[in-house]
Specification:
By secondary structure, this protein is α+β, with helices and mostly antiparallel strands. It has four domains: 96 residues, conserved putative lor/sdh protein from methanococcus maripaludis s2 fold (Beta Barrel); 91 residues, Efflux pump adaptor protein, beta barrel domain (Elongation Factor Tu (Ef-tu), domain 3), CATH 2.40.30; 62 residues, RNA polymerase II/Efflux pump adaptor protein, barrel-sandwich hybrid domain (OB fold (Dihydrolipoamide Acetyltransferase, E2P)); 74 residues, Orthogonal Bundle (Helix Hairpins), CATH 1.10.287. It is built from six helices and 25 strands. A hairpin with a 2-residue loop joins strand 21 and strand 22.
């Protein structure tokens, strides 16, 4: 009997030890097992972690956005103050008169070209003048004969037609002479002096002595020989998307920055917006005029253009609230609390990052009133 009592005591003691061990193991581990795991795309933080990361949450609301439109642009010459010089005659360049960077006035020589077109054009005029004189004499004789009843009226009419044709050919020859600007030519040496059509600086030269050039009226491939213009005032051509057409107007302030001078901002105004849309890019051209002190901006440089427009109200988030996770653009929203944890969730959003405003308009992905993490979201992105 005593042995049965001792055995019972031993079994009871063992159960007590197991119970004690079980209670010890079930402390923190049991509490952790009882805490539900975050769903995919969620991050749970303790209030202490939220405070330590300085996470700030604000409801998604309306803000003033789009005080500027950001677009790309290309610097170009002012077309009203520049000229692209081609040769009107076909021939060989024998001398370059003007140097790169030289300032010239309208009518100053640029290059001298030997051309057979000069002799041909002058010969055509002289021949046409002689034909007119011959036709005039013949018409006078036919009229005299007809008045004396010695010739038929048909001869007078034929002579009159020949006279008109000769005059038409003379006019054609003179117009060709005018187009070739033969006032700048030496008929004896067959040399043509290419001159500047405007005042300005020689910005570009694509010709050297001995080069054969093709006249612009000969039907061949024409090459621009000189570019003359002014750099103290330039244009910047940018692209506008359809959504911005109604908000950009002539006279709106504009600024430009370029890679060459990242700390320099150039100020100008919008002076023209195209009335046509490019069918490929669905954009319209906008032209801005800028002063160019020091001639720092140069043709064909790429530029970043900001155009000031009227503000509008829209649901928007600050730029620092947006994160990229892989290929997705997301923001973090606070969706509630779970026991002693604050629950945050990554939400995909559709925003326009090209806007120049510090606020990004939310196109889709977030309803109004969503509690958005606007500061300190980097900890959530890391988690």
């Amino acid at each position: 009997m005593r042995r049965w009592k001792d055995a019972a005591r031993s079994i009871g003691f063992g159960f007590a030890i197991l119970a004690a061990v079980g209670c010890k193991r079930g402390g923190p581990d049991a509490a952790a097992a009882a805490q539900p795991a975050p769903a995919p795309g969620e991050v749970w933080l303790t209030p202490e972690q939220v405070e330590g990361a300085r996470i700030r949450v604000e409801p998604l609301a309306l803000h003033d956005v789009d005080d500027t439109i950001l677009t790309s642009g290309t610097i170009t010459l002012d077309d009203m103050r520049s000229a692209h010089v081609l040769s009107p005659v076909t021939g060989r360049v024998v001398r370059i008169v003007a140097a790169m960077g030289q300032r010239v006035r309208a009518g100053d020589p640029l290059a001298i070209i030997e051309s057979p077109d000069i002799g041909s054009a002058v010969s055509d005029v002289h021949k046409a003048e002689a034909d007119v004189l011959t036709a005039a004499h013949d018409l006078r004789r036919k009229k005299d004969l007809y008045s004396q009843k010695a010739g038929p009226q048909a001869d007078v009419e034929a002579a009159n037609d020949a006279y008109r044709k000769a005059n038409a050919e003379l006019e054609r020859a003179k117009e060709k002479e005018k187009l070739l600007r033969l006032g700048n030519a030496d008929v004896v040496t067959q040399r043509f002096t290419l001159t500047s059509p405007i005042d300005g600086e020689i910005l570009y030269r694509n010709v050297n002595p001995g080069v054969e050039v093709t006249g612009m009226y000969s039907g061949g491939a024409n090459v621009e020989l000189f570019t003359i213009g002014e750099l103290d005032g330039i244009w910047v051509m940018g692209d506008l998307y359809e959504m911005d057409f109604a908000r950009v107007h002539k006279g709106a302030p504009a600024t430009v920055t370029v890679v060459a001078y990242p700390d320099r901002v150039f100020h100008g105004i919008v002076d023209w917006v195209s009335g046509a849309v490019d069918p490929n890019t669905r954009t319209a051209k906008v032209r801005c005029t800028f002063d160019n002190p020091g001639k720092l901006l140069r043709p064909m440089m790429y530029a970043t253009v900001q155009i000031s427009v009227e503000q509008r109200k829209a649901l928007a988030i600050p730029r620092e609230a947006l994160f990229r996770l892989g290929d997705d653009r997301v923001v973090f929203t606070q969706i509630g609390e779970e026991r002693d944890r604050v629950r945050f969730k990554a939400q995909k959003v559709d925003v326009d990052e090209e806007e120049g405003s510090p606020w990004l308009v939310v196109k889709a992905g977030l309803p109004a009133g969503s509690r958005v993490v606007v500061k300190g979201g980097i900890l959530l992105a890391q988690e």
